[in-house]
Fold these 3 entries.
Entry 1:
Amino acid sequence: MMKRLLCLLLCLMLALPAALAETADTLPKLFARQLSGGNGTRGYIRVSASGVADWLNLLLPFTATEIQVRAIGQKQGTATGFVTDDDDWQVKLYVKNSEGQEAGTTWLYGNPGGMYVQSELLPDTLLEIPVTDVNLLYQLFRGEISDLLFAFDPLSLKAPGENGNASAYQAVANVLGIPEDTWTAEWLPVLEKYFTHLDLWLSGYGEPSIVAERDGALSMIASFSIPVEALKAEAKYLIGQMLYDNELQNLLIPLVTMEQRITYLNPQMVYFYEACIDAIQLSGNVVLSREMSALGEVVATTVELPLPPLPDEMQQTALQAAKLLFQLSDEELLEGMERLVVKQAGQERTIILSGSQRTVVLSTTAAEVENGEAINGTFLVAPAGDSQQRRVSAAFTCTNTHRVWQDEKYINHDTNEFSLAIHPAEEDASFQPIELSWTLDYRNNPNQQDSPAQVNLNVVAVLPDAELAVEAVLRITTQMTMENLPTDGAENIAELTDERKADLLSRFLLQMAETVSSLNGSIAEESTPEASTEAPEAATETPVATTETPAAPTEEVAVEPTTVPPVAE
């Protein structure tokens, strides 16, 4: 395990830029493909909430009705003053009564450069949310889950001005996730010569072994302390060898496209990789430790690394999470961190961030469950020395499952279920328990040609002073037409005063409440939602157009002309 980990640490740069070819036609990919080329999606959102938290007042207007949704993403054109990016998207939100009357129409639209909001509920107002605040929403809309997971770029793979290099992280995940039998049968014989070289190289940095006792049995700990500069030199050597290794190239080629092969597996790129290694901002020593039993079995593996400066967004996100859960002070949680320790012993994993001000420890134990994995763990923030910052601890249980299945109506499903429970640990009663769960279910009818895909989302949150539930259903429809919605003259939300924000929010909620109550007094319970929660039956479906050239919109599904009020000059 240690040699495999070290070899990957040294040579993964060869695979980092490679985006793996996605050939499996999963239901999420089907949904995304059907949405392109002019197809739209429509459905609804239901919100329910209860409790005594003050912020529940903001949700009351939305809990009294069903919010209809229509969304589309495609290239719009080149009209001046309008969103023109290839990744344009528009979402129309509104409410309606049992007779189909629409009211409260609100548009959210934009691209990776920004998002705009315009609504009947805020006449003569156009708002812009800057790109730094909209990236995650955009990625969620586009289904770029790998971008979401690695949005903070801990390996600093983002190029200036780019949203991120999700393909690089996907390559790392796939290389590290190679099945053990495939690794043993195909990769190990090819990499054995590198392991032998690493063993000889490591021997020059070995420290005296230590005898320890674990669970009443003796074990031996072998450690290696390697200067970062020596590690960089070894990485350059190995990558230079690998770029000329035909056997290794044959293993990597199926994981990359032809363009990536020419770019990243080209021996002439060795100078590029050397420049990347030299640019890594690390100093000090890397410490590798391996604990072995009396029988020579590896009991635990530990890697200790010096830390480069952490990205600001990572620090801010960690701070916000810590403030939300533990009411920590405004002092940056990760400021001044100097060392990272990663330890694995069986199914137990520990990550330790240490610095002059505090130590942050995350410990987890994984266990397999049906169709997934369950993780139990603890999170600890311990102040250093005589710091006045209080000690914070929490325990959590997380379960994540994924299954692809077919129901009794022969409808295909691709379902992800996630649950998270956080509660105090070590008698720390500084916060109340929190529970969160969600289910994301993609589905379609395989027995019908061009059957439209559908996605159902259910979220439940149990918080100290409130309970919140959200149900959303979106289903691919036939062609929709994008509206020419303005972008000029928008107010940047980041530049608004607190008074202006409070005024806009107050007026929006008041208009929403009045709109809901005016629709014949209430929304009729028997109103039929635009997207069924059940997968469509073959006899009632309209095939989805999936070609690059959109078919002419039919009268039934064409988007109505916008009723959004004009923007003030």
Entry 2:
Amino acid sequence: MKKALSVFLMAAMAFGAFADEPVADVNVAEFSGNAKVEWGVDLDSGTTGFQNSTDVTLKLNLLNGGSKSTTGDGVWGELVIKTDGDTFVGWNNTAKKESANKGMTGALNLGVKVDTAKIHFGPAYVGIKSGDTQTGKLKMDGAIRSADSDNATTLGAVGPDGYSQGIVAGYDSDMFKLDLDLRSKPTTKAPAERVVAYILDKDGKVATGTPLQVGDVIHYYDGSKYTVTAKDVEAGKTATVGLLSNLGGATPNAYYYTDNYAFALEGEFKGVENLSVKAGVSYNFAKNHQANKKDGDKTSNGDLWHTLGYSASAGYKLALNDTFFVRPQLGFAGATGFGTYDGYEGNSTTMNMAAGVLFGWGDIGQDKNAGVYFLDKDDAKKVTPGVALVAEIPLPSTMSGEDNDGKKGKITTTGTTLAWIQPSLYTGEIIPGLTAAAYADIQIAQKGKTKTTYDGKTLPETETAKPDAAMAFAFGVKYALNVEEMTITPQFGLRFVNEEYAKANRKKTVFDGTNYKLGDNSGDDYLNVKLGVDVAGLVDNTTFSVVWTSENLNNKTDAANTNDPKFGTLNFGAKIAL
């Protein structure tokens, strides 16, 4: 704690010199705690026992929120240094830490950062912070966003990745916003970390897949070279256009002079209230240096495979009355790669769509969970009072190109998933005392198909069998009954995951595939139930509870009777909270 306070004193001296900017402002932001005891019974073994838990949280604000910025007119440089309201020292102490004699542990969160760095030319500007050259990332608005995939990213970003160093030029008005990123991609000097390398054969062409020989020179695309040793040959390494690891070199460090660039152009129309329309495109390019007599050993750090990313999305919030609204959304993201690999010139394309509609009656994207069994804590991180349906739709992928003999071919592949749909519900406070929430992730399956043309001929179409649909859902409900001075809140929750979903490993936090390991003394499908009641107000600051939590109720009895259905635990508790 002395160390944390010394850091605070230094921050106080630094910010105390400011006038209207953030200054040292120590206050208690949060001081809370609880102690709980439960007595429970394992309904399968019949054994019983007590469990105690405590949790104390203390947060001290160090700085008030605010910012310091430059000002100007016409052509001027804008720099904004900002600190948010989460600039604090925080401690948390639980019974587990107490038992280990660790006491309070501190975490220093000085949320001070460069928020904006721009050179303004009227409504136009040039930004000089690092960024990226991808487009298309989309989070659909549903009644519940599960805490998966970067908080429910329905469409992932597309386009060239890793291009972080550079500038963004933009124009921002009341009608539209336009941003053009121009960035380069750093690499490292260590051979073990380089992504692209090559070795020339006797004809001066790139040789791949051939065994390395002692004395062969590997050319790396940052201009350096490595001579193959006998130890490398003994390890059976082969020449390849790709990663060649463990071939010497220094500790990896940033290398910025790569002649490898990419751009991303994104636009947004802002002229109609409650309407969101966005589009973007991105592409990478590099100087094509080659090792020849003209430029000697000069080589390129550019990616052999160029990626064109493109995206578009639209959404509109239509008010039905003062309470209810409808918000439809549609999104699209695709990427096409171009290049030459192992003598084959071609391209590949993958595309995905997203569609959804939200019928709501509250603020969109509230930063909290649903507060019911299986959709509480971190299982759901964004909620909107309403009911919604979101669909992720993968489109057929294609590969086409021309081989060394000049023959052209094209392969179109349709996967076994027509769509993933996520219906969701969150009641909010539309019915006093009642909170209900539901979230599902369901695969709409289909037969997979592959169509191939080669050298002007269409080959017979092949099919992949339609799989059993993968599905998972969670539902929770509670109702607070006021009886004189008491509040009695019965609760019920149910969660189901089938075998196909566990195999698909969708990595949804609500249905995390790692929690459903097949063949681990469990049934193929997973069904969990939780039933309980809380009673508050009978004793001041105290909540009494009874909770039954099942194990997998769908376990299937095997011949050795080692896989019987399990009924879980029953716990009686009392919690005193400040």
Entry 3:
Amino acid sequence: MIKKEKRKLKWNMIRLLILGWIIPMVLITSVMFILLDIRSEQYIERKAALSTEKAAELIKQNLNIALSDSRGASYMSMIEEGYNEYLQNQDSYKLYTTVTRFLSDQYRFNAYFHTAMLVFNEYPKRVYYTKNDMELKHAYDKVKNFEVEAKDILLAQAKNLGTNTFVTNIDDQVYLVRNMLTRDFKPFALLVMELNPTNLFKNIESVLGYRNYCVYINDDYLYGNGQKISPSQFKSDGKITKVAGETYIKQSIKADGQRYDIITRLDLSEYKQEETSIFYLLGVVLLFLLPLFLLVFRFFRREINQPIDELTLAAKQIEEGNLGYKMEEINSSKEMGYLSESFNHMSLELKRQFDMIYSEEIALRDAKIKALQSQINPHFLNNTLEIINWEARMNGDYKVSTMIEALSTMLEATLNRNKKEMVYLAEELSYMNAYLFIAEKRHGKKLKVEREIDEELLGVLVPRLIIQPIVENAVEHGRGKDNNIHIKIQIVKEGSYLLIRIMNHAKLAEEDRKKIENLLSEQPEIPTGAMNIGIRNVNLRLKILYGKECGLTIISNQKNQTISTLKLKWESEQE
């Protein structure tokens, strides 16, 4: 197997020599001849034509986007509804607010428009407009120029426009015009966008040899930054044409039924120079690279390729589950020796960590969670309580009935028939309230409960049955000097934590304090009594679910009050 691997690696290296040197030399030699052809005039012109075609396609996309954006006002009924409302109440200010807000929302950040203007056919003297906030500083001058030079012309041209659009140049300003139609396709307003030709036609600057350009629409001049050249001087698209000693190329596109002729002036002289010296320079470089290539090949094969193969085989052993696999030390270099030693150390450490953490700690954690969450589920008790409750109601004893219902609520919480780990705080408080109802019937006026609960927190998710055991502990051990029980329940959000505080007016005795420290420690003595188990259960569940920084604390303050605090990480339903 080892000999076969060595022979295979050897032939692989030879094959690499062929693929990495001989074939590249042939290809490079061929490419050098191709480079000479690339510099030819015919190739350069083809490349210029191709770049012009691609630029024209991008400009067509820009035009279609601008046309599509202009249709947004027609598809939405806000302007028509605002105008109809104005016809009824003549509230010009509300109409102005509606129209300008709509234009601003739709077109203020559109890079293809300088301004967007709207004129109602019945009230042509008033122009509603918005400007492009990204670049235009003198929008008022643009609108004023539209009112003086273009408005009347465009209103006249749009009378027979219907649902179509047209683009035109008036006083060196490029306008996109469309009618606003009612639902029965009657025009009631004219929407005019002053286009931003710089952004619309910017892709033409990517054409090979670009100098300047001009654009015609349906044989009428539209825009440009160079000399006007009529499209009639060009026989076809994508062909280099000489006009007055200059080089031009024309490309036509159609958008929304209108033809755009884009004429670009080119300067291809710098691309047509033949640089044959590159051929000879590359040949010399290749000759000098041959010995260097062989040395590098030998070095990589001995110092890197072979050690990496050994590391790869060892890694496959780990991948196949052979944790603790130990490979032979690599002595080809200090670095590779360090890598092999580190790999062996990592393999042994990985096995130790996996055995200790995965096999023991995670298994123990899962066992703890299952043990803490397992409850006695006496379903027959719930059914029996329902029968007793029915008998109590039949006999008119509603006090007993309400107490049975509260007890049923608590039993339902312990049964957890839906197997829910987490419940809303509102549901958790219902379990607590059911217990307090029973406790109030037992202690009467001696028990006073005060609640401070932020209602916005009722939708927070909390573990089941974490509040009731603590409240029960506070009631059972919370008698003050006056033999009364005063409980205060406070639920607040502080930072990324949810704090649930249960306070009573009884001082925490030294014996109780030591017992609580034992219950809340990491390795307590086995607790006895349902109350002790409940406190420890709540504390361990919170630490397992949220981490060691969370859990239950029970302390006495300076007022000799006992404060039990449940600390949870914030978890809303969405999170």
